[in-house]
Design goal:
By secondary structure, the chain is α+β, with helices and mostly antiparallel strands. The protein has a single domain (3-158, 172-263), classed as Sandwich (Jelly Rolls), CATH 2.60.120. The protein is built from seven helices and 13 strands. It has helices at 3-12, 23-38, 63-66, 72-81, 109-113, 236-239, 244-250, and strands at residues 14-17, 49-51, 54-56, 86-96, 104-107, 120-123, 126-129, 131-137, 147-150, 182-183, 191-195, 200-203, 212-221. The strands form four sheets. A five-stranded antiparallel beta sheet has the order 1-11-8-13-4. The protein has a four-stranded antiparallel beta sheet with strand order 5-12-9-10. The chain has a two-stranded antiparallel sheet with strand order 2-3. The chain is globular. The model has no long low-confidence stretch (mean pLDDT 95). It binds 2-oxoglutaric acid. 2-oxoglutaric acid is lined by residues 104, 135, 147-148, 200, 202, 216. 2-oxoglutaric acid binds next to strand 9 and strand 12.
């Protein structure tokens, strides 16, 4: 990461990376998402399920989407932030429409999953984070549209968040934003990379003529133990169609092991 990126990630808990996808990558991923959206539920590839407005394990619908798990722009950041020991543990394709009229309340891994389980540290000029999320965007978000809101700097918060401070009425679909909060507005092709310790939520999607399409890629360290135990948390039917490189990325490993893919600067998927 550049000194500027490190500084911004450290001080805010997120990075808004612009124009990560090339025009070709954007075209191919957008086309894949539209195909996924139009596929009847019973014809989706094994392991992909409609999940509210999105598709669980949707990243495995098409190689154009799967390739984003190792995208050259984010790959070196994921490796650096996890101390060279990355593991992909989920990849949901999300589509927000105006039909959902409720905000997603503020949350973060510290609050949801226990403060002892997640780390954000800096040592010898290196940032270490054991829970990261990359949001790849395929449609534009403009100011006023809704979408992701974050409390910058909250990944380092030492205090309990006072209840009702930011969204006192969760039934209000259009709350006024507290000045400590910002609404991130990525355009198609941008990526927002966050520490899952960053407090974030989602505003109601306002446009009626456009939806919000994005991929949620979750990374842990390879030795992070999930609720499922120390085995690969991805379903076997999803693992079966991944390229060997992505499959290796999903594998848990001992903390001293170095995965073969983690030695690579640029990873090209082998198409099975
Ligand atoms: O919709 C978003 O941008 C964020 C979704 C979210 O809150 C999450 O994946 O934890």
């Amino acid at each position: 990461m550049t000194p500027k990126q490190k500084y911004l990630f450290d001080v805010t808990g997120y990075l808004h990376l612009k124009n990560v996808l090339s025009p070709e990558e954007l075209r191919n991923t957008q086309a894949a998402i539209e195909r996924c959206r139009q596929t009847p539920p019973d014809q989706l590839p094994p392991g992909i399920h409609r999940n509210g407005e999105g598709f669980s394990y949707g990243f495995s619908f098409d190689k154009a989407l799967e390739a984003l798990t190792l995208h050259p722009v984010t790959w070196h950041m994921i490796k650096e932030l996890t101390g060279g020991k990355p593991r992909l543990n989920r990849g949901t394709l999300a589509i927000n429409t105006n039909e959902k009229r409720q905000i997603t309340p503020l949350h973060c891994a510290r609050e949801d999953l226990g403060w002892l389980t997640r780390r954000y540290e800096v040592k010898d000029g290196q940032i270490f984070a054991n829970d990261l999320v990359a949001f790849f965007h395929f449609t534009d978000v403009f100011p006023g549209d809704g979408g992701l809101v974050v409390i910058p700097g909250s990944h380092k918060s030492e205090f309990e968040r006072p209840e009702g401070l930011f969204f006192p009425d969760l039934d209000n679909p259009d709350p006024e934003l507290h000045p400590a909060m910002i609404n991130i507005t990525p355009r198609a092709g941008d990526v927002v990379l966050i520490s899952e310790l960053l407090t974030h939520g989602v505003l109601v999607w306002k446009p009626k003529d456009r939806d919000r399409r994005f991929l949620i890629l979750r990374y842990k360290t390879q030795y992070f133990q999930d609720e499922q135990g120390n085995k690969n948390p991805l379903p076997e039917e999803v693992l079966a169609r991944l390229s060997p490189e992505t499959r290796e990325l999903t594998e848990p490993a001992f903390y001293t092991d170095v995965k073969e893919i983690a030695k690579q600067e640029r990873v090209t998927l082998t198409i099975n």
